[in-house]
Amino acid sequence: MTSAPSSADFKREMLAQLPALRAFAVSLCGRADLADDLVQDTILNAWKARQSFIADTNMRAWLFRILRNCFYSLLRKSSREVEDEDEKLALQLSVQPSQHASIAMTEFRSALDALPSDQREAIVLVGASGFSYEEAAEICGCATGTLKSRVHRARARLRELMELPEGEADEPVGSSV
């Protein structure tokens, strides 16, 4: 069994086949941009597998087979892909990507932590815990009007910190106020 050629010889032989590879790729896919991508994938795959190439065998045939396999892999992948240029299909997903909610929650948590403690306490009691203003005021040991004022200031500050338009943070989650 003959060993693999040296890296320099392999590279020289491989690069000599580029014009023929590109012509074959164009004939397979009919698009120059896609053909260039196929040739690039072919060269990368061939370089990774250079140890399996046997010296004094047909480099051209070996590279053409790799290119053909890359093309068929691309066809298989593209048959499973759906074009959604206007994102109508993505908007119909029953579950939206979780990273958006995670980012929003991180931003909200940072904004909440930036509030003064009395405002944070008021908004958490009324908004997140679902207490009425009266119940929350009793828990905080202050007048109902004072608690309402703290919640109002907390909402305004959250809107400001999160750069939300007017009205988007007015109703806390779980609140019936």
From TrEMBL:
Domain RNA polymerase sigma-70 region residues, every copy: 18-80
GO terms of biological process kind: DNA-templated transcription initiation
Domain RNA polymerase sigma factor 70 region 4 type: 107-158
GO terms of molecular function: DNA binding; sigma factor activity
InterPro entries membership: RNA_pol_sigma-70-like, RNA_pol_sigma-70_dom, RNA_pol_sigma70_ECF_CS, RNA_pol_sigma70_r2, RNA_pol_sigma70_r4_t2, RNA_pol_sigma_r2, RNA_pol_sigma_r3/r4-like, WH-like_DNA-bd_sf
Gene3D superfamilies named among the record's database cross-references: 1.10.1740.10, Winged helix-like DNA-binding domain superfamily/Winged helix DNA-binding domain
Pfam family name, one: Sigma70_r2
The keyword Ribonucleoprotein belongs to this UniProt entry's keyword annotation: no
UniProt entry tagged with the keyword Transit peptide: no
Annotated family: Belongs to the sigma-70 factor family. ECF subfamily.
Protein name listed in UniProt: RNA polymerase sigma factor
Species the sequence originates in: Stappia indica
